[in-house]
Structures are given as structure tokens and as C-alpha cells.
Design goal:
5% strand, mainly alpha, 278 residues, three-stranded antiparallel β-sheet
């Protein structure tokens, strides 16, 4: 199959998935358009492993977000800025880096970009699994820097359940990455190459998700409701009161932090692959 055919097939698959997600109200209209673009690049240029990785991330993330959804929304409604349908910014912040890596892989043929694409998706999955699983932990999460208990959904907060979910999400994508056709670049046994790919992608994913928590605890914009005093990420709090920035970098919101962390996860994956090749 030549490049044009691959892209057209990727466009078809991505459009079907985006349409189905829109029908199930998993994506907004602009979110479905962004998903179609990301999916076309990942499926069309990345091939089987990145395509399955993107699909796996989306399906598991959607499934986890809907599991006991009402309970999670009740626990985090004072804090999180977005919920339910994912918009274009959320789609691009989670899948944009992987799509770019797939483009670079197609252009350069360098296996490191294939590892970067998968590690970026692993970081997105690790962060999503950590958030959705940690939201249901019996005890409130703790802030990464102060260790004080904070409301579920607070950026920069961690829990033991969330950390387990983080590792599981990264490993899930790591196992899919074993399908990457990069064993020839390794120069050794195919089994050793697959094991190395799984480990590298998993480590990159965990590193990216931990970076997400660290950025959320330090530089992400944090706001406070001027009406009720609640700490939140919302521009207008659910009580109806306006909010003001009290810490962090202006306009550095959760979407931007996700983009930075998935990009970092991909970069770490590429660097680890280079080191492994010697």
C-alpha cells in the first residue's frame, strides 16, 4: 500500500471513529473534527501500532470516564474546568504530539519517532487512567508538593490508586507498541527488541504523566472563586461567581499542561531508544 492509499484509509477510519464518538456524545463538534485530523495522521502515517495505540487510548479513556461518572462529577464539580464531551483542545493536547511524531517518522524513517509517538500516547493514557481511577479513591488525593489533602480532580494531586492507574495506562500502550516494526533497527533478537520497546514506551509514558502532575502542582494556572472562595480551574465557578488567578502562569491551563507532558513523554521515549541502540 503506497503513502496516498495509507492516508486515505487513515482518513476513512478516523472519520468513522470521530463520527461514532460524536454520536455517543464523547466529542464536541470541533473535538470530532480535531480527532479526524489526528486520527488521519496517526493511522495514515504511523500505521498499525500507533493507530491501535490511539484507538486504545480513546476507548479506554472514554470507558473509564463514564464509569461511575455521576459520582466523579459530584466529587470534582468544584474544581475541574471541563467534563463530559472532549473538545478540540483536549483532543490536540492528548494526541497532537503523537500525530506530529508519526509525520516525522513517515518523513525521516527514523525509528526513534515511532517510539516517540507511542510514548506520547502512553503519557496521555497514563494521565487519563490515573485521573479517572484516582477520582474514585476512598481517600482524597494529596498535593504533590505540600502533601495536603485536596479535592479529587485537583491538578498536581496524586493518590496510590491513581499512581497504579498511571503505570497500568502506560503499560497498556507499551504492550501495543510491541507491534512496531523496529526490530531491524535493534540489531538483536526480535524478542529483546519487543521487550525493550515495551519498557521504553512504558517509562516514557510514566515520566510524561509524572511531569503532568508536577507541572499541575507548580506552574499551571490556579484560580479562586471571588464569591465563595473555592479553589478551582474554572473561569466562572459553578456557583456563578467569577474567579481570579491566584497562582501559576496565566493561561497555562490543563490542556496546555497535557500538551507539554505528552510531548515530554514522547521525547523521553525517543531519547531512551537512542540510548538503547548505543
Amino acid at each position: 500500500m503506497d503513502r496516498v492509499q495509507s492516508i486515505l484509509l487513515g482518513l476513512l477510519l478516523a472519520a468513522i471513529v470521530a463520527w461514532a464518538a460524536r454520536r455517543r456524545r464523547s466529542l464536541t463538534m470541533d473535538g470530532s473534527l480535531a480527532a479526524a485530523v489526528v486520527g488521519t495522521l496517526v493511522f495514515g502515517l504511523g500505521g498499525l501500532a500507533p493507530g491501535l495505540g490511539l484507538m486504545g487510548f480513546f476507548l479506554t479513556g472514554t470507558g473509564l470516564s463514564r464509569y461511575r461518572q455521576a459520582e466523579k462529577e459530584r466529587r470534582s464539580q468544584d474544581v475541574v474546568a471541563k467534563g463530559g464531551e472532549r473538545d478540540a483542545l483536549q483532543v490536540l493536547s492528548n494526541g497532537g504530539a503523537a500525530a506530529l511524531c508519526c509525520v516525522l517518522w513517515a518523513v525521516t524513517g527514523a525509528a526513534a519517532w515511532a517510539l516517540a509517538a507511542m510514548a506520547s500516547l502512553a503519557a496521555a493514557a497514563a494521565d487519563t487512567w490515573a485521573t479517572e481511577i484516582g477520582m474514585l479513591a476512598r481517600r482524597p488525593p494529596r498535593h504533590l508538593l505540600t502533601f495536603a489533602e485536596v479535592p479529587p480532580g485537583t491538578s498536581g494531586a496524586v493518590s496510590s490508586a491513581g499512581l497504579c492507574g498511571m503505570v497500568a495506562g502506560a503499560l497498556f500502550i507499551g504492550l501495543i507498541a510491541a507491534l512496531l516494526p523496529v526490530s531491524s533497527a535493534w540489531g538483536g533478537a526480535a524478542g529483546a527488541a519487543r521487550a525493550s520497546v515495551i519498557g521504553i514506551v512504558t517509562l516514557g509514558g510514566v515520566a510524561g504523566a509524572l511531569a503532568d502532575s508536577l507541572l499541575g502542582a507548580t506552574v499551571q494556572e490556579r484560580r479562586e472563586c471571588q464569591a465563595c472562595g473555592a479553589k478551582t480551574e474554572q473561569i466562572t465557578h459553578r456557583c456563578g461567581g467569577a474567579t481570579r488567578r491566584v497562582a501559576g502562569v496565566a493561561r497555562l491551563d490543563n490542556d496546555m499542561v497535557n500538551l507539554l507532558s505528552t510531548s515530554l513523554g514522547g521525547l523521553i521515549g525517543a531519547l531512551l531508544w537512542r540510548v538503547a541502540l548505543g
